[in-house]
Design a protein that fits this description.
The protein has 426 residues and is α/β, with parallel strands linked by helices. It has 15 helices and 18 strands. The radius of gyration is 21 Å and the shape is globular. The protein has helices at residues 8-12, 37-48, 82-89, 93-101, 103-113, 132-146, 157-164, 183-196, 244-247, 265-268, 308-323, 367-382, 403-406, 409-412, 414-425; strands at 24-33, 53-56, 72-73, 125-129, 152-156, 171-175, 179-180, 200-202, 209-213, 216-221, 224-233, 251-260, 277-279, 287-290, 296-300, 332-342, 349-354, 357-361.
């Protein structure tokens, strides 16, 4: 059994007993590979629709990116908005936009419906603007998302300061359907709900082979074999060697997260008094939120991977102290990292790898909300909806040209982006 990662979330979430590894043969209507948000949501929704479902996780539930993020529920896309999506996808755009717009509500509705204990607060997500140009973009974002009747509001500089406790931003916007949660607690709650709905879950069951078996699919694990009518690969950036062509169709991006020791109440009361999460408009994104014990949480990327495990968390700690005007910021209590799957156009993907075999991935930093909504769509496919009718863009698993080099671009461009952010903020 693989140990859980040493994250804040794994240390503080309600415990989940280990599920048995797969042993011997088994059959199901649907096999889901991956025990993260998208896989668990797929399994739960498919079982509720009446399908027999088996879920295989190579390690433990929430071992991958699902358990290694910051716990932000953000119901939109990282770099694109409805107008750009309509220009790119045409009539296909509306279902995707609607899926994203409702993704925060879906998350919190599942939490309420299944009584999931995960420190959930649907209090909103804030994007402050670091420059006048970014504030103009915020105004346009509010125009586009409010046209969908979403609870979004433009914020002036004083309102951003009041909500965040931080001076210096030009303004920003808020989507009150977003919020925060303990992502491991949410995933473990989804696992319990899926199991109660009839899903057979197996930890420590990596799929080492996947091939056609007549009109079905057969998945091989170290100690078992599953025959299924349909298969959903919900591995996101952790696909490994299972399907190499898929692994070369996105950028794997390592993101670091840190959490301090709890802040004193006198300091905590100044910052985020209503409990929202913040990710600002900088290219070198600045994020922060608190957990239920007043630990301050933030994240960042590396420029060079060598020594990043020690160097990047320390740099994030210094950045928090500087941005939040906290010269006596408590030391780090937790630090961890995970891999996100990113597409060049920042839109999620569905790839039909073969008849009866599909993969959904690349939520581009919006993993909790969009991955959960993606699972609902993948469950529809498992129940007979054609892949081309799903809300998500359907693409072939085309490798990105010069993938070995181009995958380094987000990290290589970080120094330039830091300089551009600084110049714009003046």
């Amino acid at each position: 059994m693989t140990d859980d990662p040493a994250t804040l979330w794994h240390a503080t979430a309600a415990a989940l007993p280990a599920y048995p590894s797969l042993s011997g043969p088994a059959e199901a209507d649907l096999l889901v590979i991956g025990g993260g948000f998208s896989g668990l949501s797929t399994a739960l929704h498919a079982a509720e629709a009446g399908l027999s479902v088996i879920l295989l996780e190579a390690h433990r539930i929430a071992w991958g990116a699902t358990g290694r993020n910051a716990g932000f529920v953000v119901p939109n896309f990282a770099k694109v908005d409805p107008d750009a999506i309509r220009a790119k996808l045409g009539t296909k755009a509306e279902t995707l936009i609607t899926m994203a717009a409702g993704s925060g509500d879906l998350v919190f509705d599942l939490i309420r419906r299944h009584a999931i204990a995960c420190e959930a607060q649907q209090v909103g997500w804030i994007q402050p603007s670091h420059s006048e140009a970014a504030f103009a973009k915020a105004q346009d974002r509010v125009r586009q998302w409010s046209a969908l009747a979403r609870p979004v509001h433009l914020l002036n500089a004083a309102e951003v300061t009041a909500l965040t406790g931080v001076n210096g931003w030009r303004g920003g916007w808020i989507d009150r359907s977003g919020g925060v949660l303990n992502p491991v607690g949410f995933a473990r709650g989804l696992a319990r709900a899926a199991n109660a709905a009839g899903v057979r879950i197996h930890d420590s069951s990596p799929v080492t082979g996947l091939h056609r078996h007549g009109t079905d699919w057969q998945a091989i694990t170290p100690n078992g074999k599953i025959t299924a009518r349909r298969v959903v690969m919900a591995t996101n950036a952790y696909v490994g060697d299972l399907w190499p062509r898929l692994a070369r169709s996105f950028f794997p991006l390592q993101v670091f997260q840190v959490a301090t020791a709890p802040l004193p109440l006198s300091v905590r009361s100044r910052l985020l008094p209503e409990g929202q999460c913040v990710s600002d408009s900088r290219r070198n994104l600045f994020t922060f939120r608190f957990d239920a014990q007043n630990r301050l949480i933030s994240g960042g990327m590396h420029i060079l991977s060598l020594g990043a495990k020690a160097r990047v968390p320390a740099a994030i700690h210094r950045r928090m102290a500087r941005f939040l005007q906290l010269p006596d910021l408590p030391p780090l209590a937790y630090q961890w990292s995970g891999m996100a799957a990113v597409m060049p156009d920042f839109l999620p993907r569905v790839v039909e790898l073969a008849p009866g075999l599909i993969a959904g991935f690349a939520c581009n930093g919006r993993g909790i909300a969009l991955s959960t909504a993606m699972g609902q769509q993948l469950a529809d496919w498992a129940n007979g909806t054609p892949a081309e009718a799903l809300a998500l863009p359907l693409n072939p698993a085309n490798p990105i040209p010069l993938h070995a080099l181009s995958r380094l671009a987000p990290n290589a461009l970080l120094p330039l982006n830091i300089i551009r952010d600084g110049l714009e903020s003046r």
